[in-house]
């Protein structure tokens, strides 16, 4: 449960980073860094575990999880941005709030195949 709460809280870091001055290196690093991983990681965690061969290295599983997390995060960001653009409500702050909410829901939702 602590890991899920940490993921939910981390999803809001980019929104908090908006309080930093525009162009501040920390603001850029936080928004891009967290945005590449969340909300994808909690969504990918919920997928059913794959069939793992006994000889498959843990590093390969972590790499696969990381790549899938980035791909899902970028897909979510694209869908959110396109939806907000089509409804004429696209602003960086609103997009980050929607993505943070999505990451929070994915991290805190009960059950799922990846649930521990």
Tally of alpha and pi helices? 6
Element-level helix/strand string: HHHHHH
Structural class: mainly alpha
Largest sheet: none
Sequence stretches where pLDDT stays below 50 over 5 or more residues:
none
The outline comes out as globular
Report the helical percentage: 55-70%
Radius of gyration: 15 Å
Q: What integer is the average pLDDT?
A: 87
Q: Quote the beta fraction.
A: under 5%
How many runs of DSSP E, i.e. beta strands?
A: 0
Give a short overview.
This protein has 116 residues and is mainly alpha-helical. It is built from six helices and no strands.
Question: How does this structure look, described?
Answer:
- By secondary structure, this protein is mostly helical.
- It has helices at 2-10, 13-17, 25-37, 40-45, 58-86, 92-108.
- 23% of the residues are buried.
- The model has no long low-confidence stretch (mean pLDDT 87).
Q: Would you spell out the secondary-structure blueprint of this structure?
A:
Blueprint: H1 2-10, H2 13-17, H3 25-37, H4 40-45, H5 58-86, H6 92-108
């Amino acid at each position: 449960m602590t890991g899920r709460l940490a993921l939910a809280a981390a999803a809001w870091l980019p929104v908090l980073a908006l309080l930093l001055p525009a162009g501040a290196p920390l603001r850029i690093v936080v928004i891009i860094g967290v945005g590449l991983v969340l909300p994808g990681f909690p969504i990918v965690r919920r997928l059913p575990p794959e069939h793992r061969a006994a000889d498959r290295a843990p590093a390969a599983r972590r790499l696969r999880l990381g790549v899938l997390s980035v791909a899902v995060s970028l897909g979510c960001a694209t869908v959110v941005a396109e939806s907000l653009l089509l409804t004429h409500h696209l602003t960086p702050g609103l997009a980050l709030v929607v993505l943070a909410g999505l990451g929070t829901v994915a991290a805190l939702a009960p059950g799922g195949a990846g649930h521990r």
